[in-house]
Specification:
Blueprint (H helix, E strand, L loop, with lengths): L3 E4 L18 E6 L7 E6 L6 E4 L3 E2 L13 E4 L14 E6 L4 E5 L9 E4 L3 E8 L2 E5 L2 E5 L3 E5 L4 E6 L5 E7 L39 E10 L2 E9 L4 E6 L4 E4 L18 E5 L2 E6 L2 E2 L13 E2 L4 E8 L12 E5 L4 E2 L5 H5 L4 E2 L2 E7 L4 E2 L17
Parallel strand pairs: 9-16
Antiparallel strand pairs: 1-18, 2-3, 3-18, 4-17, 5-17, 6-25, 7-8, 7-29, 8-15, 9-14, 10-13, 10-15, 11-12, 11-14, 13-19, 16-17, 20-21, 21-28, 22-27, 23-26, 24-25, 24-28
Length: 384
């Protein structure tokens, strides 16, 4: 990320910063990788450590199917309805391993009555349908269909969604989510050849601090539980902050595709990296322009990774029987490729209008029990 600041901050870190009544603002350092990663300094009107009470913790975890086996998988979630009441209750985890979990979320309630903090993972939220506002200690961000929202761990946040269709793809990992190394200079600036740049990244904007006393519930996710804390003051009480660690939005529609004379490999679509997996964006683009080019992807044997595709919009020329909102999982160990007839059909095509999110993991992914209701049992035989 890049340096950003909002509001009022002192000239030097860790020095006296006083209010009009001469009392001190409360400084909070939010840091990653101990003190060796990116960080931000926050200046609160009230102490962020003052707990009024601690309520009972709630179990919050998903179980995997132990004996699922090794097979191509299609999860047809195109007809997904309401998945729960609020933002946390509605998360339906479908695929996971120790490095990442992948969930869908469609809550019936459009406003959260609490604040949420993921105490153990970064989150990437892709808005398939919907629009609203992300609020956090760092400010607010207007978000809309097609946005990736990247939320670093320990960020306290809440959503308010507008009425209308809502469908969220939520990717969570215990390690930082970053822009790809190969697109950044030694000093962190995105290169000229990167498919997006800093202008495309939307940081938080200022919102007035909430200084009202009350009963503020913060739900913190950690070690398979939601831990419920009551504070007397709002976590959104900042006078100002600065640093490199903050949530942001980036639209998949601002990803500029890299194309060539012949079929380009999936890494050209990479958008984010994290330990154990990458996220790629397939967007509308011109097809390959070699006179003998075959636009459909070639057969591929995954040696080191499992491949998940979430189909958002458009006609996916290499797949049959795939709907808007489908997942496919092609695990390492067996080859996968275009469905019969799609290779010949693709020859001569000039462009595609597909939109999809791909997650490639470097360790096996597991199906959860919640995913079984969406399982297309005929999919492994669809290449006959």
């Amino acid at each position: 990320m890049f340096y950003h600041k909002l509001g009022n901050i002192p000239a030097k870190r860790h020095t006296q910063f006083r209010k009009k009544d001469q009392s001190l603002f409360q400084e909070e350092l939010v840091s990653s990788l101990g003190f060796s990663g990116i960080y931000s300094n926050l200046y609160h009107h009230f102490s962020p450590t003052r707990i009024e009470s601690i309520l009972d913790s709630e179990q919050y975890k998903t179980t995997i199917v132990e004996d699922y086996g090794l097979k191509p998988t299609h999860l047809n979630t195109s007809d997904l309805g309401i998945t729960g009441t609020d933002y946390l209750d509605a998360r339906k985890v479908l695929l996971k391993n120790n490095d990442v979990s992948i969930a869908l979320c469609n809550p019936s309630e459009r406003k959260m009555g609490y604040y949420y903090k993921n105490g153990e993972g970064d989150e990437v939220i892709f808005i398939h349908d919907g629009e609203g506002v992300l609020y956090s200690q760092f400010g607010k961000i207007e978000v809309r269909k097609g946005d990736y929202i990247v939320i670093p761990r320990t960020t306290i946040y809440s959503f308010e969604w507008k009425e209308g269709p809502l469908r969220l793809l939520i990717i969570e990992s215990p390690n930082p989510v970053e822009t790809p190394n190969r697109y950044r200079s030694d000093l962190g600036q995105l290169h000229e050849h990167s498919p997006f740049c800093e202008r495309d990244i939307r940081p938080p904007v200022w919102m007035e601090p909430n200084l009202k006393e009350g009963s503020y519930l913060v739900k913190t996710k950690k070690q398979g539980y939601l831990h419920n804390y009551i504070y007397k003051n709002s976590p959104y009480d900042l006078e100002g902050w600065d640093g490199f660690l903050w949530p942001y939005a980036f639209s998949i529609n601002d990803f500029e595709p890299i194309t060539g004379r012949i079929h380009q490999p999936p890494p050209v679509h990479q958008t984010f990296q994290a330990y154990g997996y990458v996220i790629c964006s397939f967007v509308p683009r011109l097809f390959d322009y070699h006179p003998q080019a075959i636009p459909a992807p070639y057969n591929h044997s995954n040696i080191d990774s499992d491949e998940v595709l979430y189909y958002a919009e458009g006609d996916f020329m290499s797949r049959k029987g795939i709907d808007r909102g489908s997942f496919t999982l092609h695990p390492g160990g067996i080859p996968h490729g275009p469905h019969p007839g799609t290779v010949e059909k693709s020859i001569g095509a000039k462009e595609t209008h597909e939109l999809a999110v791909m997650i490639d993991t470097f360790k096996p992914l597991y199906i959860t029990h919640e995913a079984l209701e969406f399982l297309d049992t005929d999919y492994p035989y669809s290449w006959k």
